[in-house]
Write a structure and sequence with these properties.
395 residues, alpha/beta, Rossmann fold, Dna Ligase, domain 1, 3 domains, eight-stranded mixed sheet, four-stranded parallel sheet
């Protein structure tokens, strides 16, 4: 196949699983990053080519020129697959010029950013009749009174731009329990020049979190999809998935497909929902508009989304497919799942017995693969042990 696949962001297992998904189909994969540091994904045997680029954020202009220059040297336009939100933002900002050189599923400049922005997504959902948690803007008049009346405590202070917020605070949001904590969170956000919203917490444990994972073709129609149920997250309660199972929930297709097709989305996307423990109603929480944490789970149940993307963009689309049964398979990111289990047990949210029982399910590992062990050795032998030694030295 003439078209290469350029994967951006390989210091995390999403890039790793993307290269595996494509490499197993005989696709030439190009791991492109600004540094080799901690890029354990490049250790996979499915990495065909390694390229170091300028920094996407600190040297954006040079990075875009580098991307274009690389594509010009190829015999066919490469497929561009960003595996981190920060890369997606930069690609979206320069979409019109990059799509002259690369095959990219999204054709509307700004839609990636719009759906990643919590405030803009909230408005889009309302316009399309999708339920979202009650939300207030940080600059509203009588904000604290409105929080008392509408949102209630505890509540969430969430960024509109998650990647930047996480890079500053090393957390996805602030959970606040009273006016004083709310005022403190707002002040911290203001000092960091981060725009935030205040949002109601939908009742329910972490296992009330669900996902709708789908691919929309160039006609903005859902062609491939499945649904999943989160069981554990890290950090607990408001973090990323570390233990999630595929589970067929047809209602999520009815909500998710209609919304995504309505806004004209194209390419892979994951909608996160939370099911209200009191009413059973599903609320849209956020969108992940790049290959997701659960990619290896999706691959193992028969939905190879990176390859689905590649095939459509290179003019040879795969047949539509939906997983409409419960496979029993779970995704696990072992290192952070152990950290999550520790915290769930400490806070009494889970019992040891229930945790042990959960580990007997068939698994799709985030990093480990028997036939491709080098990335796991690089990650656990270098990065994780390095963290352990640093903590030990601090003591």
């Amino acid at each position: 196949m003439k078209n290469k696949a350029v994967i951006l962001g390989n210091n995390y297992y999403i890039g790793l699983s993307t290269m595996r998904c494509l490499g197993k189909e005989g696709i030439h994969t190009v791991a492109m990053d600004y540094s080799d540091e901690q890029a354990y994904g490049t250790k996979t045997k499915y990495c065909s080519e390694r390229v170091i680029s300028p920094h996407y954020k600190n040297e954006t202009k040079a990075f875009i020129e580098f991307l274009k220059d690389y594509a010009k040297k190829q015999t066919a336009p490469p497929v561009l697959i960003p595996c981190h939100d920060s890369y997606v933002e930069v690609i979206d900002q320069h979409l019109n010029e990059l799509k002259e050189y690369y095959l990219i599923p999204q054709t509307e400049q700004g839609l990636y950013t719009k759906t990643m922005d919590k405030q803009a997504l909230h408005q889009l959902a309302i316009e399309h009749g999708v339920a979202v948690p009650e939300t207030l803007q940080a600059d509203e008049e009588n904000l604290f009174e409105k929080v008392d009346e509408i949102i209630k405590y505890p509540c969430l202070v969430k960024p509109t731009d998650s990647p930047t917020f996480v890079s500053i605070f090393r957390r996805k949001l602030f959970k606040v329990h009273n006016r004083e904590e709310l005022a403190d969170a707002l002040e911290k956000s203001k000092q960091a020049e981060q725009e935030v919203i205040i949002q109601r917490i939908i009742p329910g444990f972490d296992d009330h979190m669900y996902t709708f994972d789908a691919y929309l073709n160039q006609d903005a129609k859902v062609t491939h999809w499945t649904t999943c149920n989160k069981y554990r997250q890290f950090p607990i309660n408001f973090g990323a998935s570390v233990y999630t199972g595929q589970k067929y929930v047809p209602e999520l297709y009815e909500i998710g497909a209609k919304f995504l097709e309505g806004i004209g989305f194209k390419g892979f996307v994951e909608i996160e929902f939370k099911k209200d423990a009191e009413t059973g109603k599903f609320y849209l929480i956020e969108l992940n508009v790049r290959i997701t944490n659960l990619n290896n789970l999706l691959y193992k149940i028969g939905l190879n989304f990176p390859y689905i993307t590649y095939r459509e963009l290179t003019g040879n689309p795969l047949e539509p497919k939906a997983v409409k049964e419960n496979t029993g398979l779970v995704f696990i990111y072992t290192y952070e799942d152990l950290l999550a289990v520790r915290d769930y047990l400490r806070t009494g949210q889970l019992t040891l017995g229930s945790v042990i029982k959960s580990y007997f399910k068939p698994k799709a590992h985030a990093i480990w693969e028997w036939s491709d062990p080098k990335p796991a050795f690089s990650y656990y032998g270098g990065i994780v042990l390095g963290k352990v030694f640093k903590k030990a030295l601090k003591r």
